[in-house]
Amino acid sequence: MTRGGGRPGPRPGGESDARRHERLGARERYTRREFVHGGEGSASDSDAGPRWLFPLPELSAEKLPEWMRDAAFTGYLAARGFLPELLADLGVAGGQGPEHLVFGDMVFTPEERPVFWTQNVWRGARLLPAPSIGQAARALRDVQRNWWPHPVRLARRAALVAEKLPKVSAREHVFGVPAPVAPLGSFTLWDETALIAAAECSSPFPDGHVRFVEDRISAPSRAYLKLWEALTLAGALPRPGELCLDLGSCPGGWTWVLASCGARVLSIDRAPIEERIAAMPEVEYCQGSGFGLEPGLAGGPGARVDWLCSDMACYPARLLELVTRWLDADACRNFVCTLKCQGEEDRATIRAFAAIPGSRVLHLSHNKHELTWMLVR
Ligand SMILES: C[S@@+](CC[C@H](N)C(=O)[O-])C[C@H]1O[C@@H](n2cnc3c(N)ncnc32)[C@H](O)[C@@H]1O
Questions:
Q1: Looking at per-residue confidence, does 236 or 15 come out higher?
Q2: pLDDT reading at 43 higher than 70
Q3: Cα-to-centroid distance, 202 and ligand 1 (Å)
Q4: Quick check: CB of 251 below 6 Å from ligand 1?
Q5: pLDDT top residue among 283 and 50
Q6: Are both 91 and 178 inside the same structural domain?
Q7: Ligand 1, atom 7: nearest CA belongs to which residue?
Q8: How far is the centre of ligand 1, averaged over its atoms, from the C-alpha of 32 (Å)?
């Protein structure tokens, strides 16, 4: 696919994207990230670049839908590889409709709607005239200080605009340090005369990706990054002495995170956990099913659990039943649960999770084909 036009082109293996699309056929195959993303690393405005799921709209700024030209609108950056799921969340199909427009890995709509498969929501997005690099940078600076470029096309030009803006730190985040509070806007170049910018984004991290200073030595699996991210976004950590349940804990990444915070952890999995994690003084490991534990019995009769964490490989509907029992019994304060999504049939369950008062469902940048439900109070 050539940059900008978004048309299929030859792949290194000789097969064109068009042939491959035809051969793969099934819709879910298109969720593979190779078709949906690829904005990064595309330094040039002319060489072969990302292969988007839909060809980039070739509209000049004047021909944009009226709702994009005349008023503020909402942008959603699709979770990496999950543009079809985002479109399903929005209840729209195809690259363009009366109420949506796909632009690379972004979807624009006139109003904000509740969605799950997004990495960053751009609120109050606007089309701004940007006939030169200097004018683009000035237009952004006039709105606020911090901007992050999200190039879909004209990547080199977008980088030149960013160079003229105050530097935004993209340093890796240290777990335990609060998430940044300074507003971070996002922009993308629509064409050589206009850009789309949103001063307010749902994530304080660039493109909604939380890159951590990782611990590659102590953590028993990379799953710990999900819990690090969830706790960072929730702005809360288990405190020393608090009681945590970790259901589906093997090989021990989440248990290691909770115990490293100084909390007491009852760690349950049908499979054995790493010995050195089970040996941590804060950890009590039980081999068995996370569904077997009755609310009110963990930590002794009447003890209230402070955190119920579940990364169990299980059907979301079954997890909802478990969570509902714990909520009804008022037996736990905070919840962080991974929803392992199987497909379309989970949509109603995901909505039911999101409808639990005070909670939210989101796609963490360290989630794969899964979402995270959090209730932190
Ligand atoms: C993605 S892994 C969890 C990774 C873990 N959070 C970590 O940080 O290392 C999913 C786990 O769920 C466990 N599991 C599946 N069904 C379970 C059940 N009914 N009860 C307890 N654990 C279960 C599996 O044995 C598996 O270890």
A1: 236
A2: no
A3: 30
A4: yes
A5: 283
A6: yes
A7: 253
A8: 25
Reading the block at residue 96, the tokens are 């363009």
Residue 4 placed within a domain: no
Do 51 and 116 lie in one domain? The reply is yes
Q: What percent of the chain has pLDDT over 70?
A: 87
Ligand 1 pocket mutation, candidates 246, 249, 267, 309, criterion most atoms within 8 A of CB: 249
**What six digits make up the tokens of 155?**
């990547």
Please tell me which residue, 13 or 269, carries the higher pLDDT value: 269
Tokens read off for 221? 């699996």
Cα 231 to Cα 310: distance, rounded to the nearest angstrom: 14
The amino acid at residue 143 is V
List, for residues 356-367, the tens digit of each pLDDT value.
999 999 999 999
246 Cα nearest atom in ligand 1: 6
Rounded to 10 deg, the angle between the 155-163 and 133-143 helix axes is 60
**pLDDT-based confidence at residue 46 (cuts at 50, 70, 90):** low
Q: Are 166 and 305 part of one and the same domain?
A: no
Query: What is the per-residue pLDDT for 59?
Result: 76
153 shares a domain with 282: no
Q: Quote the CA–CA distance of 205 and 209 in Å, as a whole number.
A: 6
- Average pLDDT (263-289) is 98
340 is catalytic: yes
Q: How far, in Å, from the CA of 250 to the mean position of ligand 1?
A: 5
pLDDT of residue 45: 67
Indicate the residue among 208, 243, 270 that finishes a domain.
Answer: 208
More confident residue, 42 or 233: 233
Judge if the beta carbon of residue 269 lies within 6 A of ligand 1: yes
Residue 316 belongs to a domain with what CATH number?
3.40.50.150
Same domain, 142 and 54: yes
Q: Establish if 191 belongs to a structural domain.
A: yes
Total domain count for the chain?
Answer: 2
Domain boundary among 164, 180, 208: 208
Task: Kindly give, in sequence order, each residue whose CB lies less than 8 Å from that of residue 371, ignoring residues fewer than 6 positions away.
Answer: 116, 117, 338, 339, 341, 350, 361, 362, 363
Report the nearest-CA residue for atom 11 of ligand 1.
248
Q: Find the 82 Cα to ligand 1 centroid distance in Å.
A: 24
Q: Once rounded to an integer, what is the mean pLDDT over residues 52-65?
A: 87
Same domain for 179 and 289: no
Selecting among 63, 164, 226, 340, the annotated active-site residue is 340
| Domain residue limits at 321 | 224-375
Any atom of ligand 1 within 6 Å of the Cβ of 222:
no
Sequence-separated (6 or more) residues with CB below 8 Å from residue 223: 253, 254, 311
> Is residue 241's pLDDT more than 80?
yes
Residue-averaged pLDDT of the chain: 88
